[in-house]
Amino acid sequence: MKCDQTEHYEMTFDDLKKAVADGAVDTVLACFVDMQGRLMGKRFHAVNFVETSYKETHCCNYLLATDLEMATPDGYASTSWETGYGDYVMQPDLSTIRPVPWLEGTAMVLCDVLDHHTHQPVPHSPRAVLKKQIARLEALGFEAKMATELEFFLFEKSFDEIRKEGFRNLEPISGYNEDYHIFQTTKEEGVMRPIRNHLYAAGLPIENSKGEAEAGQEELNIRYSPALDCADYHSIAKHGIKEIAWQHGRAATFLPKWDKDRVGSSSHVHQSLWKDGEAAFYDKGAKHGMSELMGHYMAGLIKYAPDYTYFLAPYINSYKRFAKGTFAPTKTVWSVDNRTAGFRLCGENTKSVRVECRIGGSDLNPYLAQAVMLAAGIKGIEDRLELPAATKGDVYEDAKAADIPQTLRAATQSLRSSAFLREALGEDVVDHYTRAAEWEQEEFDRVVTDWEIARGFERA
Ligand code: ADP
To answer: Which of 84, 263, 311, 421 is least crowded, fewest Cβ atoms below 10 Å from its Cβ?
Structure first.
């Protein structure tokens, strides 16, 4: 195995065994994706991995019932202190083996999470949630191809320095809006070039990076792929971006809104369906080149957007991004190539015709986000929902257009009471994520913020 940064890898289990035998790989990261979309797991000595642990390994089952801070909230049916927080099985999906070129002698594999006793997939594990919807779509004869854009900010200082300074005086890596700027992004190539090249060498089909519409804001685009691959790529890329930034003494944040006066970071999701290798969203003779099937799919996406907004905006901070005039949408309407609508039709009149959901923030979990949108699209197809007319102009000012939930509290209520999601994902899965949403709100409600103190300390 070579770790040339510009070579693109497919790595089989046999390739890994050879790389271990000749000493090129000594460490294997066995990872699963948690509720927050993070890679969690263990670092294996590579010999142990290829001899035995490739079959399965184990982790504590609180890892799919925790928050960003690794707390152990009550109220989850799947696990608790009362049940003693047992184990899950992590089963490596050997088709996901890849080198990790930014770490010496290291490879990685993603794992599915299974019940310790039954060896059945844990229903609320993000990979299982997405696989269930992919299977439903396959039963209808379609394959979904998706692309998730990754936006983030790069900062001058490292994560450790920033944390020790109390997350104060945050200085982005550049001094001005760098949307599509080549000169400013040239100054950032010390970090962005290794990000592109290392991720490409890890087998991710990287298309490009570009400056985004704020100082220090970046976007990374990965070529569209089957939905599960797309979510795997997103999680590995997000993880890789943080690690590579860290290696260069910088910090990369996917917090959607780190400054109230600056635009936030999104993760737009491009979606298309395919049948027997042909673009099922394309109909040459139809308006916009959009097939009837695409119309039904989009109608489902739009109708059920309030139900699934939580999965596109899972934290308190996510909702700070939905502001007028910032390119972050607030309305469940669609438009043709218009960036103020929640859903944008792209690739009009071409085989690449697709829908881009612009609601999601950079903090979304790609497995869950894709799963709920597939579920909504499937519902639109099954119920032959009719697509409302496209909106035109500045959608922010369109009083008739429906709003997405504007707070985590409202999104949680929509999730909790969604009959559609309960049917599509399962009661247990909806209850699980409703609890995660409630906990996030409860934690925030306990806190006295700097804003309250500054506002009221003297004047209240
Ligand atoms: P933009 O100018 O909005 O960034 P791009 O042409 O760069 O648009 O495409 C954005 C994303 O859409 C890319 O990641 C690309 O791979 C993806 N994409 C292109 N065609 C399709 C398709 N048919 N289905 C899903 N995603 C697609």
So the answer is: 84
Exposed, middle or buried: residue 104 (CB in 10 Å: 0-12, 13-18, 19+)?
A: exposed
Sign of the CA dihedral running 326, 259, 210, 11: negative
Q: Is 272 in the pocket of ligand 1 (CB under 6 A)?
A: yes
Whose CA is closest to atom 23 on ligand 1? 352
Q: Which atom of ligand 1 is nearest to the CA of 271?
A: 25
Among 352, 355, 356, 374, say which to mutate for ligand 1: greatest number of ligand atoms within 8 Å of CB: 352
Q: Which domains does the chain have, with CATH numbers?
A: 13-121 (3.10.20.70), 133-451 (3.30.590.10)
Residue whose CA lies nearest to ligand 1 atom number 3? 346
Two structure tokens written together for 388: 């409302």
DSSP string for 85-128: --EEEEEE-GGG-EE-TTSTTEEEEEEEEEETTT-PBPTTSHHH
Per-residue pLDDT of the chain (460 residues; tens, 9 = 90+): 444 555 667 799 999 999 999 999 999 999 999 999 999 999 999 999 999 999 999 999 999 999 999 999 999 998 888 888 889 999 999 999 999 999 999 999 999 999 999 999 999 999 999 999 999 999 999 999 999 999 999 999 999 999 999 999 999 999 999 999 999 999 999 999 999 999 999 999 999 999 999 999 999 999 999 999 999 999 999 999 999 999 999 999 999 999 999 999 999 999 999 999 999 999 999 999 999 999 999 999 999 999 999 999 999 999 999 876 666 777 889 999 777 789 999 999 999 999 999 999 999 999 999 999 999 999 999 999 999 999 887 776 776 778 899 999 999 999 999 999 999 999 999 999 999 999 999 999 999 999 999 999 999 9
CA angle 423, 427, 430 (to 5 degrees): 95
User: Which run of H or of E encompasses 410?
Assistant: helix 408-416
Distance CA 267, CA 250 (A): 21
How far, in Å, from the CA of 147 to the mean position of ligand 1?
A: 7
Ligand 1 binding pocket includes 352 (Cβ within 6 Å)? yes
Cα(265) to ligand 1 centroid in Å equals 18
Give the Cα separation of 277 and 178 in Å (integer): 38
**Pocket flag, ligand 1, residue 210 (CB < 6 Å):** no
Report residue 260 as tokens. 């109230």
